[in-house]
Fold this sequence. Notes:
It is built from 16 helices and no strands. By secondary structure, the protein is mainly α.
Amino acid sequence: MSAAAETGPGIRAYGQVLRLPGARSFVAAGILARFPRATLSLGIILLVSAATGSFASAGLVVAPLVGGMAVAAPLWSSRMDRHGQARVILVSLGCLVLAASVLLLLVRTGAPFWTWLLAAFATGAATPDLTSAVRARWTVLAPPSQRTAALALETIADQMVFIAGPPAITAVAAALDPGVAMLGSLALGVAGGVWLAAQRRTQPTPVPRVRRSGPVLPPAGVIPIALACIALGGVFGAFDVSLVGWAELNDRPWLAGPAFSALAVAIAIGSVVTGARAWTLSPAARYIGFAALAATVAIALPFAQGSVPVLFGTILLLGLAVSPVMVSGILVASARAPEGRVTETLAYPTAAMSLGVPIGGVIAGAALDATGPATALVTIAVALAIAAVVAAVGEALLRAAGARGARA
């Protein structure tokens, strides 16, 4: 794991990358385009629970949605690399609007429950990972010395959407209707996606490849981080379930929302710091080291749950420690992307995290039901430790394979 120094003028690094030609436009478009991936799960929970009166049914419908997103994201991104982002984004958005509309119609008309599950999977599979599309543009536009700041900026944009999106869709659902909230989220995503597709000058040049007979598989260099990102996604799934359970068992369910916002704000702040400073450790080393640090911080969560201020302070520290992990994972993927597969490669960490979210939620939920929030909160530290170990072992295996190849 070689050290790679990165230089940058502190916080001014963000101003420099935003002054690159076309950067501000695709960053703004990318923020809008993220809304479906950030809010569709919640929108469907609100829609299905309102129609059935059952949150368990809503959870069952969300599971194939998330699974569809995780499976299809690299496929859409691979097509963007081969055919250009503009054409694939427009096709995928058309599929998304159609699939989501069918799901809404099926729920509204009381169609058989199994059809909801199929439509939810189709909706997830039609949802493109436009975050990876934006990040791929940075690999074209930003020189290597500015890439940490650029990709940290994208993590900040993610957190902005996750901070603003869920409260907004919940408020619209309460004031008007869950279906209206779901359609509103789709409308924002489509507007952002079309705007992004129109900006052809900053998209990576398409690289047509010979048709592959086998499945689309990630490049070997990104597999350790992608696998570790499954555990990292589990952190967020476990956090959501654990904090909801903690708040409800303490008769203060309204505290769950501020807890989620506290984590998102801390990650955004940590991302600003990560992108602004110079690093001597490689991105892979930062991923492993900060995942281990975040696991250490997370150990304090079950002990802090008795005091709201102490718990929120711990959550803020956790977010600050997790943010370099998220930024570093994307940096590893971008540095190891083969020619012509940049967008696809950048989709694997995101897809892996999406896959890990429901896994973490299920494990934390089982712990919550069995023994209470303290054990559920422990699963957050365990997931982070797993992320660090998987990444470290994977990197060691890559080095060993490289050494064997050099001797051969």
